[in-house]
Specification:
Blueprint (H helix, E strand, L loop, with lengths): L11 E9 L3 H11 L4 H10 L5 H22 L8 E10 L3 E6 L5 E6 L2 E9 L1 H35 L9
Antiparallel strand pairs: 1-5, 2-5, 3-4
Amino acid sequence: MANEPMQVPAIEAVAMARHVRMSPQKVRLVVDLIRGQRAEDALQILRFAKKRATRDVEKVLRSAIANAERKAEEAGASLDVDHLFVSRCFVNEGARWKRLRPAPMGRAFRYQRRTSHIVVGVVEHHHAAQQRVAAAAAEAESQKGVKGAVKKARQALAGRKKPAGKSKR
């Protein structure tokens, strides 16, 4: 148990768009293109795909990338966006809008406007996470001696200086 390698937590972020006015079947065609791709490659694929759903999926992907950056910033870690990849993305069916269409002889036909819930998750590659943690540990180790040296220098300067002009009586 002591010899097991320690798992480094990779930064993971999720973004969701709900009630997108498009059929889930049409959005799934686009989402299947980017699943498992690097985030940068996924954006390029979405930019040049000729589907109307790419606009909404690209917006959600950019939001997930921004969420990952913010999460890393709050954790005090440095995140390289080039090491993010699309870990999970799926489309669920949203609420259906029931509508009526006029039909002959005073009747009405019902039809349904379908909506989608788009979910995109990005995660940092595990090798990049290990490098990030190693770099943070090396930075902390290098700063360890500097803080003590600065403190000693300040104490030496404070001990040498004596306030002139003011005397206590």
